[in-house]
TrEMBL record, chain A:
Protein name listed in UniProt: Cytochrome c oxidase, subunit II
Entry keyword annotation includes Metal-binding: yes
Pfam families to which the protein is assigned, alphabetical: COX2 (PF00116)
Lineage, opening ranks: Archaea, Thermoproteota, Thermoprotei, Thermoproteales, Thermoproteaceae
Keyword match Signal: no
UniProt source species: Pyrobaculum ferrireducens
From TrEMBL, chain B:
Membrane topology recorded in Swiss-Prot or TrEMBL: Multi-pass membrane protein
InterPro entries (alphabetical): Cyt_c_oxase-like_su1_dom (IPR023616), Cyt_c_oxase-like_su1_sf (IPR036927), Cyt_C_Oxase_1 (IPR000883), Cyt_c_Oxase_su1_BS (IPR023615)
Top-rank lineage group of the source organism: Archaea
Location, primary (coarse class): membrane
One Gene Ontology biological process: aerobic respiration
Gene3D superfamilies cross-referenced by the UniProt entry: Cytochrome c oxidase-like, subunit I domain
Transmembrane segments: 16-37, 57-86, 98-119, 139-160, 172-189, 219-243, 255-273, 293-312, 338-362, 382-402, 414-432, 467-493, 520-538
Listed name of the protein: Cytochrome-c oxidase
A GO MF term: heme binding
Domain called Cytochrome oxidase subunit I profile: residue spans: 18-522
Localisation per UniProt entry: Membrane
GO cellular component: membrane
Source organism: Pyrobaculum ferrireducens
Amino acid sequence: MTVHREEKIWAFFVLGLTVVFLAALAYAAWGLGLTTPYTVERIPAQKAAQELKPGVDCVNPNVKQIVNNVVVCQDGRYYVNVLAMRFTWLPNRIVLTDPKEVKFRITSTDVIHGFEIAGTNVNVMVFPGYIAEITWKVPSNMAPGNYLIICNEYCGAGHQNMYAILEIRK
Amino acid sequence: MATTPKFAVEDRFARVAILFSFVMLALGSLFGLVQALTRFPGLLHALGLDKVITPELYYTGLTLHGVANAILFTAFFIMGLAVFVVTRDMNINLHGPLLRLACMMAIGGTLVAAVPILLGQATVLYTFYPPLNANVLFYLGLAVVVVASWIFAAVVFHGIYRWKKANPDKEIPLGVWGVITTLVIWLYATPPLAYEVLFLLVPMSLAGMPVDVLEARLWFWYFGHPLVYFWLLPAVTLWYTLLPRVLGTEVFSKTMAKVAFVLYMIFSTPVGLHHQYVDPGVHPVFKYLHATLTYFVAVPSFLTAFNLIATLERAGRARGGKGLFGWVTALPWFKDPVFTGLALAIIIFGTGGFSGVINASFQINYVVHNTMWIPGHFHTTVGSGVALSFLTASLVLIPLLYGRQIVSMKTVKAAFVLWFVGIMLFSVGGYLSGLAGEPRRTYAPPYLNGVQVTAHLLDLMKSAASVAMSGALMFWLGGALFLGTLFFSVLFGKRVAFEGEVKISPEPGPASWFEKNLKLILIVGVVLILISYSLPAIEVYSQGLSPAPPQGPLK
Ligand code: HEM
Ligand SMILES: [Cu+2]
Ligand SMILES: [Cu+2]
């Protein structure tokens, strides 16, 4: 049972590094508000199409308009309900004009899907039976244009066809 | 046969298990080629292969690739290796009839599970997330393999226990430490998997019972993460024992090697939620708890890196290497293929380890989850650090177990180089295309051609993916070359007679703290698991389940 001096130094260095990493993660999560998605709302998978309610808290008179599951608030905040079903997203085209913050509420009518907006940090698992909720703070330098919404969890033989477009207008 | 009659039964087990594992690797890797090709939609179309390699074939092949390479190749090789190490290092016999039973059950279960996969009735990928539904034979076949592995573990532990009884004051050989920790991880990890399969998935498949997705995923990933350490520890065992042996030196620090094994053992199970960071329904505090434990399971890898590099330095200096880096060039890089294979495997694993620490980050996971980054990551870990170490070990095992010489070391070295360069291209390409958002497990998606989206990400996705897939083709070639050499050697290699003892571990000393406190260490492991899993389990069950009915994957 010998432990060399170099090994002790290295072990303490590694432990210190680990603690620093963990502190950084905790600070980012609870200091800067970058935690992981969390909801416990449940919804029957087969009735998801009828029962998925928009998670709006900017009610009248703040609501500018409601189009296609998309609720627009005065101040650039949006509430978007999305339904995943094999092999499409509903709606499969989402148009947002100068968005500042978007809250997505997403569920599935059949199997597990993955909701990803390529090139952003919007990436959440979508389960039948559960509503996934994710708030996206849109970067101010987000260029206008069409972005890809991809299904990134295998959901069956047509999985590769499951994508949608997010259009950002300024 | 070259082996001593004393281990006739054990060696027969090892021979069958190892040969079967390489057949699985060959089968699974065939579909690795198919997958790589599908990431070149243009090429596929130009060759007219898009009629042959359909999405159905791709997903069925992906299921087979995952099950055959990640589960069966690894498990069978590990069983063969464990028997070899334990019988030689401790000079004991194992319970023959039970060993034979475990072997027959494992192979039988594999064949039963293979039928529905090959018929396209179990295209649920190797993670088989419900409510995607497979033919019940798929679940039952895998369950039989798991039960066989339990019998196997019992046989090995029984042997070790008897040895310990007879040698209470002797240290457990280092290689056997590797075997013990590997099998303990497996026993920690598999009971919830058995629960998921027998009580959720089999009733779903047989009777259409709805399944709660969150509950199933919780127990699947409870098993899923320790599984990767079950793969890794035998490779680490080979690094700690075989590498010093071929260099004619001792491992730098046996004590720290044991510390690493013990830390791997107790920290590898309570971390499964790091695969569920972006799942709804699990509280961030529990995810953070698992993130913490995940960072701790990186510690033994850092200790191992230090220990191995120190061992290499010592060997290099003994060979006359001078100065700060002279010892690196003094090592027998391309002289001894066993050294070549293990050293390349360690380097590749090192890069994979860093990407693993990135994956473990609570927040960065958003960006990489389910993208090509992930295959980039795990082909450097299990697909290489582990697989390449196993292939290398077979250079030692084939002459000992089959009594045949490897026919050509030139092709072996060429295979290693192809593998190394290929896997590096594959992982770097995977990392980049993953950062651009390219999803994993996806057959040639139509948006890569023709859909008008904001362009530069798509371009990066496409070009990085081509780099990755050229790399995949390259290391596939390396693998094919190696396996070809191996099968040829087993069948036609020159016969070698073998006498004398083989041990892979250094000569054991007196029993240390670790031998005396093994029970305590095991209990600490169980307590960590109980803390880390009771909280999310209470949450999932107390909020009430929300089951969804099964769906076939191919309609
Ligand atoms: C020998 C050459 C190999 C090639 C060319 C290859 C290629 C690939 C590719 C391209 C993918 C990604 C599929 C996709 O997401 O579209 C993949 C997935 C995978 N590979 Fe490999 N691979 C090889 C060897 C291995 C080995 C040796 C292992 C493990 C021991 C392995 C384990 C896996 C696993 C677990 C997956 C994920 C399956 C899933 O997501 O369901 N591969 N492989
Ligand atoms: Cu989908
Ligand atoms: Cu999908």
